[in-house]
From TrEMBL:
InterPro entries membership: Carbohydrate_kinase_pred_CS (IPR017953), CARKD (IPR000631), Ribokinase-like (IPR029056)
Sequence ranges assigned to domain YjeF C-terminal in this UniProt record: 14-358
Protein name per Swiss-Prot or TrEMBL: ATP-dependent (S)-NAD(P)H-hydrate dehydratase
UniProt lineage: Eukaryota, Fungi, Dikarya, Ascomycota, Pezizomycotina
Subcellular location: Cytoplasm
Amino acid sequence: MESIHHVSTSSKILFGKVRRMVPPMLEKFHKGQLGRVAVIGGCADYTGAPYFSAMASAKLGCDMSHVLCERSAAPVVKSYSPNLMVHPILPSSDSVKDPKSIDASELAGPIIAMLSRLHALVIGPGLGRDGVTLQVVAEVIKEARKQSIPFVLDADGLLIVTQDPELIKGYKECILTPNVVEFGRLAKALGVQVSSQAELDTKTSEDEKISKESDACEQLSRALGGVTIIQKGPHDVISNGVTSLISSVQGGLKRSGGQGDTLTGSLGTMLAWRAAYHNKLWDSGEKDNDQDAQNKEDVQSELETEGKRMSPATTLLLAAWAGSSITRECSRRAFEKKGRSLQASDLTEEVHPSFLSLIGEPEGSKTHL
């Protein structure tokens, strides 16, 4: 059982709640209804990250998985899998005449034109630090926020936020996935005091260490106006500044590069399914809940109550927790098979088995004809 911080609800109940958000497999659905997710990232130097993220999204079960990447990265990403839709529409300094004088909003136009067709964005895998690219992506973030499209920020997507926190401050449809170093940079940019890893390692009690990490995650979330943060580590701390969960599903012992991309892709699909849940794409059998969860007690009540629809605040926290748990289970399964040789690609084929093991198909799904 995973330990839960601040919410006295068992992991079994939490996974049951997550299952309520998963669309059942029904004959009436058509292409695209169960998830249209786009990964924004991929440059000349980094082509694996957007692929791993987009494939995790696809393997978890979204219908349409896109990669919006820099022109030079597109043929490489396309060669990895024909299942992904790859669009070479992410500008860079190499693709504009004068990198020092650009209209970032205009350059972002082709990507912005796609937003209305998408349920969720993953921004950052393999993005790189090209100045033109980062300016364009900042414009995409602004427009996604205007259109209330949920998005996940990771890697160099987090760098954009570190440089300009106002881009996402107060936007509740956002999930950040920083590692220890990235978390520290964000905290410093926002004036949040956090304990160093060395200080945490000297704590005599694991509970005390977790409490310190949770408090820091909550503080950073509040400083950003309540965005949801997954602080990755030996256990993942998930907080929206009001309520925090600890995802401590056992992971593998190999820390190869690229494992975090499975997390972002899984989160993309969970956010797409969450949208379908709130749009009442299917009859969940739950009664409408007119009151949104505003505090810790409200969220806990929704997690413990059966028969009522969950509010967006609760489902976003659950989506983050589920994505974290699935990724950790993927890592555990892959490490059992590969051991020291484990690579990020080994996690990809574990996404669906991990989903079935932890969450399972919802009631009413037709998985066999």
